[in-house]
Design brief:
- By secondary structure, the chain is α/β, with parallel strands linked by helices.
- Helices cover 23% and strands 30% of the residues.
- The strands form four sheets. It has a seven-stranded mixed beta sheet.
Amino acid sequence: MTVIRKGNVDNPAGELWAYAFPEPKIKKLYSAGLSTRQFAAIDSKYYVIVYRRLDAGDLIRDLLKLLKSEFWFDPTTGKKLTGPTLRMLEISAHGSPTSLDGFDMDFDLKAFVAFGSKLAALRWNDISEIYLGGCNTGCREKPDEQGIAEQLAELIPAKPKQFRCTVYGAVGDLSGDHAAGNAETEPSGTYLWERAGHCVDNDPDPHMRPFRGYRGANSA
């Protein structure tokens, strides 16, 4: 399991928060001397995972191992508890309306659907969130074609009304991370459903934040 920083599962609900990105990004950060600053910005409750680029299966395996291996203690009884749930997943990578650095609807829709099905089969919290932290993942290229965040929301959960999951995609060119609270977007001027101007995570107007959320028909 490639967890490079352990998060905090010390809560009564046993919820896991995960921030994942493909391997080349960490190599670049290390070589540029930016790793400490980058990871210090990510909220301490997040587990930081690096997966092999273009290998969706590697990310799924890491998440499965994490859910199987982590534990926490009941604050009242002190009893050791196992079987945490995944509350939040943010995948930080290069994106477009149809791809997220290897998770590509246009190139291989069958593989993308399979990835969504495996992701849906993980042990999720009753209220869960997924952030696709790549440019324009919350946009569409054409009015009648779903973007990648929309499509993933249709796949999770796999069983009707099993739990509630919102999939968020960036509505413009993205910088920063939601997990760090410093995500910002600027309109690219190319895609549909972009925000009209500069957007930041803490904007009081939800319609001017850098991510747009989607829930599929199976969501509770």
